[in-house]
Design brief:
The protein is mainly alpha-helical and 163 residues long. The chain has one domain (9-156). 49% of the residues lie in helices and 11% in strands. It has a 3-stranded antiparallel sheet. Helix 4 crosses helix 6. The relative contact order is 0.18.
């Protein structure tokens, strides 16, 4: 049983904020165009199985979607998440999940913390630009990992009551 099972969306945010993202090194960034919010939320996990279960059971609720939309997302995503446990987060898996989950839920990016720190294109570059304040968003030195993770936690994993 995962620590977030049965928790409210507010409790889930608190659980995630308490986790050590350096130990839970598989990251997920999602948005929900259907919720009317442009808010992007982050989560981090210890393994691919937990990531998949969290997407199926908790993430839509974190974005404030109602029960009918949560059920729709869950039903539509179930089969597209099967490869996740075997191959891990990949661009192909993300594209497949997004194809069935939109417009209710969108996986903005998923992957390891190391990829978030070093990838040369896409979402990792965007968040590194946000962190460094420069236009390059180049790879981060390991000495800045803790500071980077703190910024990501504060910005993308809101405290309770602030989705």
């Amino acid at each position: 049983m995962y620590e977030w099972e049965g928790a409210s969306p507010e409790e889930v945010n608190e659980i995630l904020r308490r986790r050590d993202p350096l130990r839970h090194r598989i990251w997920l960034f999602t948005s929900s165009p259907a919720s009317g919010s442009a808010r992007i939320l982050a989560s981090w996990f210890g393994d691919n199985a937990e990531l998949g279960q969290f997407l199926l059971r908790m993430e839509a609720g974190r974005h404030g979607l109602g029960p009918a939309r949560i059920a729709s997302v869950k039903d539509r995503m179930r089969s597209s998440l099967v490869p996740l446990e075997i191959t891990g987060p990949s661009e192909d898996n993300r594209t497949a999940c997004n194809a069935v989950a939109r417009p209710y839920l969108e996986i903005v990016w998923w992957g390891t913390l190391d990829a978030l720190k070093t990838a040369t294109q896409g979402w990792p570059v965007v968040v590194r630009r946000q962190f460094t304040g420069d236009s390059e968003g180049g790879p981060l030195d390991s000495r800045r990992t803790r500071e980077f993770v703190t910024m990501l936690t504060e910005y993308y994993c809101p405290p309770s009551g602030k989705p």
